[in-house]
Structure formats: C-alpha cells, structure tokens
Fold this sequence. Notes:
The complex is a heterodimer of chains A (116) and B (110).
Chain A: E1 5-7, E2 10-13, E3 19-24, E4 31-37, E5 43-50, E6 53-56, E7 65-68, E8 75-79, E9 88-95, E10 106-107, E11 111-115
Chain B: E1 4-6, E2 10-14, E3 19-25, E4 32-38, E5 45-51, E6 56-58, E7 62-67, E8 72-77, E9 86-94, E10 97-100, E11 104-109
Amino acid sequence: NAGVMQNPRHLVRRRGQEARLRCSPMKGHSHVYWYRQLPEEGLKFMVYLQKENIIDESGMPKERFSAEFPKEGPSILRIQQVVRGDSAAYFCASSPYVVTGGDGYTFGSGTRLTIV
Amino acid sequence: GESVGLHLPTLSVQEGDNSIINCAYSNSASDYFIWYKQESGKGPQFIIDIRSNMDKRQGQRVTVLLNKTVKHLSLQIAATQPGDSAVYFCFKTSYDKVIFGPGTSLSVIP
C-alpha cells in the first residue's frame, strides 16, 4: 500500500515558466491538501480538494496558482509564470474522510521547487 | 484570525533528558490538536494527537498536554534520543480547516 506519492521530487524552472506538481493520494483517500513550506518556515495551508471539487482554497494566492483533483488521476498544483518567491517545498497530504484525528492524514515527501 | 504559534524556534537538549515543546493557539474551535515531526528533507510525520475534550494523552515516550484555559499545548518527549532531532509542528483541525504553527527545531546533543 504505497503512501502519498509526489512527483517530481525536485523541479527547476526559469522565471516565467509554468510548474506542475503532482500528488497521488493513498489508495482509498479522496481528500487532498496542499501546503507550501518556505525555507526555515512552517507549512502554510494552500488548498483542500475532494474529487472534482475545491473545498477550501483560502490559502491559495489569487493569481498564477491553481489546483485540481480530477475524477481520474493525481491532484495537480499548477503555478503559472513562476517567480523567485515561488521557490519552496510543496507538500501534499491525503485523508480518507473529512479531517478528524491526526493519523487520518498522510503526507508525501514533497516537491522542492527552485526558480532560477 | 486563527493562529497557532510556538514559544521558541529552537530547543537543544542533552541525550537522555526530557524535552518539552510548547505551542499556543488563539481559537479554541478545534476537534483535534496534533503534533507532527519533520526530519530534514522529508514530509511531516504524525506523532500524536489529542481530542479537544481531553487534557492529556500518552504515547510511546511522548505525552501531549492540552490546557484549554490558557490555550496552550505541549509535547513532552521522554529520554530524548538523537533520532528525535527534527522540527516539531503543532497543528489544529476543525472540520475542514487545518493550521500549522511555525515549528520548533529540536537538536539533541549526544
């Protein structure tokens, strides 16, 4: 039973390019959460999705960022026209149901995005 | 707005001593309070959680205490080991909202 799979592990993009980060939740998990972690900082909530629905995107920047979790396939976090400030580690977590206890979440190993 | 904060950004302890990591929160509307551990280059790992109607919960070498009067949460690690070196986050949930504190970096001195 594989855990939450994120790919790529490392992604380098030039300023102005697009970055696509993928997250495959654990089998049976239909809830996905994306977090951003800047160097030496904590994790900041970005967006919470269920299959084909965005439930809470209150942590997402209003421009350039979007997320989806289609009926089939992984969840995608998309960053358009990347800037240096987008350099961070992006973590995905999944859960089988609406958040309850802490062991309901499983985190992936993250994608380290570097903008050059 | 809601916030979860930690008292100290770094903590150094001698191997074998007990560690106490503290966390304050501003909004009590939460089902669970959770502690996560994040080792360098890895994603957060669940350590222990406590339901908001409890005061104390114990796990293996870890104890979480919840003081709702002063809105304070602590994680106690007994007999700290080098493998405990990591960043520790407190984390609260309330239905669909999840909020992380900034983290405390624990360093264990051999």
